Amino acid sequence: MDQIVHFINGTAYKGRSDRTQEVFNPATGEAEKTVVLAAVGDVDAAVAAAKAAWPKWSKTPALRRARILDRFKNILWERGDQLAAIISAEHGKTHDDALGEVTRGLEVVEFATSAPTFLKGEFSENVGTGVDCYMVRQSLGVCAGITPFNFPVMVPMWMFPIALATGNTFILKPSERDPSAAVLLAEWLTEAGLPDGVFNVVHGDKVAVDALLHHPDVKAVSFVGSTPIARYIHQTGTANGKRVQALGGAKNHMIIMPDADLDMAASALMGAGFGSAGERCMAISVAVPVTDAVADALIEKLIPQIEALKIGPASDPASEMGPLITAQHLAKVEGYIDSGEAQGARVAVDGRNYRQKKQGYENGFFTGGTLLDNVTEDMACYRGEIFGPVLAIVRKQSYQDAVDLIHGHEYANGTAVFTRDGDVARNFSQDIEVGMVGINVPIPVPMAFHSFGGWKLSIFGDHHMHGMEGVRFFTRIKTTTTRWPSGMRADPEFTMPTLG
Ligand code: NAD
Fold first, then answer.
1. Is pLDDT at 463 greater than 90 in this prediction?
2. Cα–Cα 20 to 30 A to 262, which of 40, 146, 185, 387?
3. Phi-psi region of 34 (alpha: psi -120 to 50; beta: other; left: phi over 0)
4. Which atom in ligand 1 lies closest to the alpha carbon of residue 413?
């Protein structure tokens, strides 16, 4: 069985720990590889390599750093299929979906190649007589990224391209459930010309994460994952003096107004609710039709489409939805459907106990698409993040009731409204307390040159990911004030200097 090992200082690194974990192919249900789980000493080795590489890398001209990232970007364009195949084999998502993930990550690399432009500082001449002042952005040092299973390429690439472009060195701790893609990214960065030690990969679980959070030489931690872990990472990292951005879980609502194009809304819900088997932090998991008439008409359109979903492995190009990540997650998702039913929701389409018939995939972690109607705010299936192909319908009779519903939820990652009314759209965009908003766009994921992040319990920390927010997170500003001898006063100055 293949074993996936760390990548430290430009090379594969087996490490000192004898702890390993199985890596499954979710479509077959078979453990096909193992991954090593780091001991504290392995994290120390990665931090030491990154620390040693930082002085030279941070002083490498930004244009030269950008050119290395540009070569890396070209490799990604050429070999995206290879990366997508690895994502599908360990995550289960369809090939086209995996390729889409690679492209969205690559776009952050494209943004990062403009580092010489976004690192330009500010200069003020004559802030006082003969006194000039300038501000520059400098790197932090060794930065760490801790990432979830659901985007094993895109989420790491929200972080490291900007961290590297701005002169930091980096340690990626990818999800132990789909760890291979991270190693391939490290190899391709090296091939693109990245010096050894600038980018390292450490595999592992809580032991590795805690070692990063407590290491005095790690200056910043960027995290994406579930809310309880995000909160823990933020609390522990900041208590240890680190800069931390920690993005958490989600429960995204889509309001469907009576004037909306219902065919468009139904198609949008199919993609946003069931794409990637609902394992997306921007998936729509709650549809909020305004009025019962809209709810009934929408459900009539959704039921046949959900029943017709083509569920299968990524090896079948016709598949629209793959398996869930693990057997445990499958049980958790179906448990939410059980509890919804027990609390009074109507199971309009039941995806439980789905069995994949394709030969070789009978034991995969597949579930069918599920539609729950008459879901209410008190139900566990409404409050919790299911992270599976389960769409809940919460019926509301007015726009304001729908907005109040969204404001009553503790998560606030993304949301959308489907309407033809400009007033409703503008009010929604302006007043809704959610970080990312779509107007007739179901998954409003910002492009790489904008920034990604939610509000409330969907984020801990002040900075969203990528775009200029990413640049701010991975740099600190330094302001220098200069005066040359010809402008200096001879006598000492004891009062606070002012222009007078
Ligand atoms: P997770 O929180 O279980 O794991 C994320 C990372 O934390 C992994 O690298 C894991 O090894 C590590 N980790 C897990 N338990 C830990 C512990 N006790 N102590 C220290 N580290 C620990 O999340 P997941 O299941 O891999 O991913 C799914 C979650 O990620 C969902 O909640 C989803 O909404 C969220 N997510 C959020 C965004 C966003 O942008 N807000 C994007 C993608 C995924």
1. yes
2. 387
3. beta
4. 41
Model confidence at 1, in pLDDT bands (50, 70, 90)?
confident
Question: Using a 6 Å cutoff on CB, does residue 222 contact ligand 1?
Answer: no
Asked whether the predicted pLDDT for residue 69 surpasses 80, the reply is yes
Question: Is the pLDDT assigned to residue 145 strictly greater than 90?
Answer: yes
Q: Which residues are catalytic?
A: 281
Ligand 1 within 6 A of CB of 148: yes
Q: Residue ranges of the domains in the chain?
A: 2-248+458-480, 252-439
Q: How far apart, in whole angstroms, are the C-alpha atoms of residue 114 and residue 109?
A: 9
Cα dihedral: 383, 276, 256, 309 (round 10): -110
Write down the architecture of domain 252-439 according to CATH: 3-Layer(aba) Sandwich (3.40)
Closest atom, ligand 1, to C-alpha of 227: 32
Tell whether the model's pLDDT for residue 107 goes beyond 70: yes
How many helices (H) and strands (E) are present in the chain, helices listed first?
Answer: 15, 23
Q: What is the DSSP letter of 421?
A: -
Domain 2-248+458-480: state its class.
alpha beta
Report strand pairing: 131-139 vs 122-128: antiparallel
Q: How many CB atoms lie under 10 A from the CB of residue 308?
A: 10
The verdict on the CB of residue 205 being under 6 Å from ligand 1 is: yes
